[in-house]
From TrEMBL:
It comes from the Bacteria. The keyword rRNA-binding applies. One of its GO terms (cellular component) is cytosolic small ribosomal subunit. This is Small ribosomal subunit protein uS15. Residues 1-23 have a biased composition (Basic and acidic residues). InterPro entries: Ribosomal_uS15, Ribosomal_uS15_bac-type, uS15_NS1_RNA-bd_sf. Keywords: Ribonucleoprotein, Ribosomal protein, RNA-binding, rRNA-binding. One of its GO terms (biological process) is translation. HAMAP family: Ribosomal_uS15_B. Part of the 30S ribosomal subunit. Forms a bridge to the 50S subunit in the 70S ribosome, contacting the 23S rRNA. The gene is rpsO.
Amino acid sequence: MTLSKQDKESAIKERQKHARDTGSVDVQVGLLDKRIDELSGHLKDHPKDHHSRRGLLMMIGKRRRLKQYLERNHV
C-alpha cells in the first residue's frame, strides 16, 4: 500500500517549483493525493480493513489542513 519509487517521483515532478524541491506544501499535497487514491482503491477491495481506513481519514485531514494553509498564505 505504499507508493512505488516511480509514482513518488512523478508526483514530486508534477508539483515541484524547482529542481531540488521535494518538501514544499504543494509537493506534500501531491504525494498525499497519490497515497489517498491508492489506499481508497485498497479499501474498495477490503471493506473491513478498519486500520487502513483510519489511516486514510488521517491523511485526508492532513491534506485538508495543508490546502487551507495554501489558501491562507499563498496566492
